């Protein structure tokens, strides 16, 4: 393996949510040659968070109201409010500096892959539509995996947005709190499946994205074109659930890649 060592860092407050303690064993199950280290005490410094902040929760709430949740599909944060949005690349830069300052001969080390799990919503700016978009994965090494990005990045079923918008209009007509009504209408439907914070499926999804970071580091290839493969770049929540939870498997090519790395 190119990565002689894989260091997984995780904020303490999301450790249980992704079952972080099981991550090293999971990685070793797929890549027996990997040396894996888990740090469950990762935290961005307040100054780094402030520098990376694009939009606070209140601003994200207003943008969500104005566009019906269209700002990268920004929705509820873990506390029921809109999550603040952070620049993913700024967070990666901050992580890189922190990792570089770690003691020990292996840090920084180009043969060490660093993956940082965060609860913060990471976003990147798209020149095409001049908007920020929620991102699940940002960077290369270190890689940032955002749990809130898993919730907000891949799109929910089309009907969810239609019903939510209908709720927004209805609430606007009666002068109520538009967003609350829109959410309630969409959520009451309960017919739309998507991953949420605290979801019991989150550990499986987190493991899938961790595999993607390792595959990218090893091969330089981003994602898989096969939409049944765990390395597939899911654009829809239904694809996330299918490839990472209900039918998590690797395509023949990626199975071959993993087998080669076992020796
Ligand atoms: Zn594949």
Describe the structure.
The protein is of the alpha/beta class and 263 residues long. The chain has one domain (5-157, 193-257): Collagenase (Catalytic Domain) (3-Layer(aba) Sandwich). The chain is built from ten helices and nine strands. It has helices at 23-30, 46-52, 57-67, 88-100, 147-152, 158-174, 178-189, 202-219, 237-246, 252-261; strands at residues 5-10, 36-39, 53-55, 85-87, 112-118, 121-126, 131-135, 137-139, 143-146. A five-stranded mixed beta sheet has the order 2-1-5-9-8, sandwiched between helices. Strands 3-4-6-7 form a four-stranded mixed beta sheet. Strand 6 (121-126) and strand 7 form a beta hairpin. Helix 2 (46-52) packs antiparallel against helix 4 (88-100), helix 6 (158-174) runs antiparallel to helix 7 and helix 8 packs across helix 9 (237-246). The longest helix has 18 residues, at 202-219. It binds zinc ion. Zinc ion binds at residues 224, 226, 229, 231, 250-251, 253-254.
